[in-house]
Amino acid sequence: MRDAEFFRRWMAAAAAAVEREAERLTELDSPIGDADHGSNLLRGFTAVVRELEAERPEQPGAVLQLAGRTLISTVGGASGPLYGTLLRRTGKELGTAAEVSDGELRAALDAGVGAVARLGGAAPGDKTMLDALLPGIGALGASYRAAGEAAEKGARATVPMQARKGRASYLGERSIGHQDPGATSSALLLGALADVADAWDAMDAMDTADGEGGA
Q1: What are the Cα distances from residue 167, in Å, to 129, 145, 185?
Q2: Is the pTM of this model over 0.90?
Q3: Cα separation, 152 vs 136, whole angstroms
């Protein structure tokens, strides 16, 4: 089961990943966007970590809803509403439970991705964050690591696509040959989830082994 601390660690890991890759995200955004994707997300996730530390919500759903609200209020352009919607809707689906199962998280994330698709009016193959999120969430049934890897593969697969949504769509065929920055940052988000889940499960396994050894 995953409690609020798990989700706080996920947001912290996502913030660290965005900080590490901010320059690359901005470089990817430069030829097909506003050249600010990395800096915008870094500002937003830095604020998320700060707000979560200050308020310390006690339910997984509350953690994600606060994170989503913070991103909407601090991230410019389309990224704030899209990422904010993803996390807020996921958090809303999780409700007020103190702990959630992996299956409940998968279902909630699926609802969150659906909300993003409706908000942006995008579909698979449009060269957007959905091209990483959809395969990533689809692979969650196998493992968190599989989800992160599928999302990363989906992001790379946007290179030969022609953008049909967002600012990049104005470039037409000139958008071909560039990896979508939104798909790339979405892969970072799911990769951070995989890292936290791996560490969490390893810690649980150690605690279980210690308990059995002391019995």
Answers
A1: 13, 31, 17
A2: yes
A3: 8
